[in-house]
Amino acid sequence: MTADAPMISGSSVVKLARGVRLHEDPVRGQTVLLAPERAMAVDDIAVAIVQALDGERNLDRIAADFAEKFDAPVEEIAEDVRTFVQELSVRRMLEIVQ
């Protein structure tokens, strides 16, 4: 983690930064997260997380919703969500709402 990247926790409420969006790349057959001057290939799990970043629910709530939906341990999902969101923060693809 870089010194200028904010710390992400379960209580963080985030959304994609302005100008960042999901894009289907039909040539490569994959989904990418596009931002000004950069892109990041994402898998289906990452797409689900990105779509859940609505700027209203905190990361713990998102993890709990996923745990219920996929019948999986909430602690494991919460760690995966926070790790991925922290990476988006480092890449300056997020806006922290709260």
From TrEMBL:
<dbReference type="GO" id="GO:0018189">
    <property type="term" value="P:pyrroloquinoline quinone biosynthetic process"/>
</dbReference>
<dbReference type="InterPro" id="IPR008792">
    <property type="entry name" value="PQQD"/>
</dbReference>
<dbReference type="GO" id="GO:0048038">
    <property type="term" value="F:quinone binding"/>
</dbReference>
<protein>
    <recommendedName>
        <fullName>PqqA binding protein</fullName>
    </recommendedName>
</protein>
<comment type="similarity">
    <text>Belongs to the PqqD family.</text>
</comment>
<dbReference type="InterPro" id="IPR041881">
    <property type="entry name" value="PqqD_sf"/>
</dbReference>
<comment type="function">
    <text>Functions as a PqqA binding protein and presents PqqA to PqqE, in the pyrroloquinoline quinone (PQQ) biosynthetic pathway.</text>
</comment>
<dbReference type="Pfam" id="PF05402">
    <property type="entry name" value="PqqD"/>
</dbReference>
<comment type="pathway">
    <text>Cofactor biosynthesis; pyrroloquinoline quinone biosynthesis.</text>
</comment>
<comment type="subunit">
    <text>Monomer. Interacts with PqqE.</text>
</comment>
<dbReference type="InterPro" id="IPR022479">
    <property type="entry name" value="PqqD_bac"/>
</dbReference>
<keyword id="KW-0884">PQQ biosynthesis</keyword>
